[in-house]
Amino acid sequence: MDKVVDHGPLAENFAETAARLGVLFAERAADLDENDRFAEANFNDLKESGLISAAVPAELGGGGADVRTLARVLRTIAQSCGSTALTLSMHTHQVAIPAWRWRHQEEAQPQVAPLLRRVAKEKLLLSSSGGSDWIGGSGKAERVEGGYRVTAHKVFSSGAPAADLLMTGAICGEGSEAAFLHFAVPMTAPEVTVLDTWRTLGMRATGSQDIRIEGLFVPDGNIALRRKAGEWHPALQLVSSIATPLIYSVYLGVAEGARDIAVGMARKKPAAPRLQSLAGRLDTALAAAGMAHETMIAASERNAPSAETVNDVMIGRRLVEENAIRVVELAMELAGGAGFYRKAELERRFRDIQAARYHPLQKEAQTEFTGALALGQPVDRIY
Question: How many whole angstroms separate alpha carbon 60 and alpha carbon 99?
């Protein structure tokens, strides 16, 4: 069942809010990066502004924003603070996925509505263990009376210091019979510990700490999905078609921010063919990244999760990665030696953009997936 919302004025309101907050986040970004501190104050502002619940359907108390609008918000914030935007993207896709199900799968509404209402009412921040729990999954779920006893170590859990729920899972069973169980973990549970491990090249203010889960009981009724471990499932096709365009809007925004800084610096220099060539190559790469991202959004807007949709999204993801990284490299060249100083704020964007390499599907898996699909061969275990 599809519900149609007029996103014209709504999208503009969200974009204006993102731009306003971006000015504030830009003022804090260097200090957060320098000191490896999570952008907690930024998320307090995001909660107060309503952007934290933008993806929740309006009928459930949220902003009712679609993927295109959400991507625009993330892209705008990323121009000022990549870490805040990346953490917000990890929260947002975990909200946008059940919101999609609420709109398009009537039978799923009773399952997803409680979480969506809580996000809107309580301003919950969701962390994702996607870095640990891609198709192969991680952690151990031992069957006990009434549910499962879970032990796991999760990495890359963005927003962990301030998260309310960890959207995660664990493996039950072994070998070909192993199943991956999806569930939410309350971060206040005594069995859950956030480890201070996030010391990284870039995206330092995301708070993507490791999380240790020791013997947490998860009742049967809290299992949201049970799927075969190590194999594509329709739910993961849905995840990819929504999460990946949102995440890569962040890297496009980081590249745009770097471009604006470098061009601003270069305009103060005397006109020269070399500068013109660098600026032209930079804007060409940025245009390529933008066009590739648009194909990702268009694929998501088909509302038809499938291997073919995943393929279109992941080709776009690869092209955004390569061109966004190239944009920031060219920005460093265009700015010249002055761009090497931290105060120019290019070097932070140069470091932040490197993270675009690491989200699935990474380039080797993407080319295998795309090639197998082109040849009419199975892709179920290519990830």
Answer: 10
* Extents of the domains making up the chain: 8-124, 140-228, 234-374
Q: Is 303 left (phi over 0), alpha (psi -120 to 50) or beta?
A: left
Which residues contact residue 347 at a Cβ distance below 8 angstroms, ignoring those fewer than 6 apart? 332, 339, 340, 341
- Greatest alpha-carbon pair distance for the chain in Å reads 75
Q: How many CA atoms lie within 13 A of 287 on its CB side?
A: 6
Question: Residue 226: left (phi > 0), alpha (psi -120 to 50), or beta?
Answer: beta
Evaluate if residue 288 carries a pLDDT over 70.
yes
CA dihedral angle for residue 45, residue 81, residue 194, residue 219, rounded to 10 degrees: 70
Q: Give me the DSSP letters along 295-334.
A: HHHHHHHT---SHHHHHHHHHHHHHHHHHHHHHHHHHHHH
CATH number of 234-374: 1.20.140.10
The answer to whether the beta carbons of residues 381 and 231 sit under 8 Å apart is: yes
- Do 8-124 and 234-374 fold alike per CATH? no
Cα–Cα distance for residue pair 290/284, rounded to 1 Å: 10
The structure tokens listed for 170 are 């664990």
Question: What's 140-228's CATH class?
Answer: mainly beta
Q: Residues 153, 212: contact at Cβ < 8 Å?
A: yes
- 322-380 tens-digit pLDDT: 999 999 999 999 999 999 999 999 999 999 999 999 999 999 999 999 999 999 999 99
DSSP state of 138: -
Q: What percent of the chain has pLDDT over 90?
A: 95
Predicted confidence (pLDDT) per residue in 289-330, tens digit:
999 999 999 999 999 999 999 999 999 999 999 999 999 999
Of 276, 259, 269, 278, the closest CA to residue 333 belongs to 278
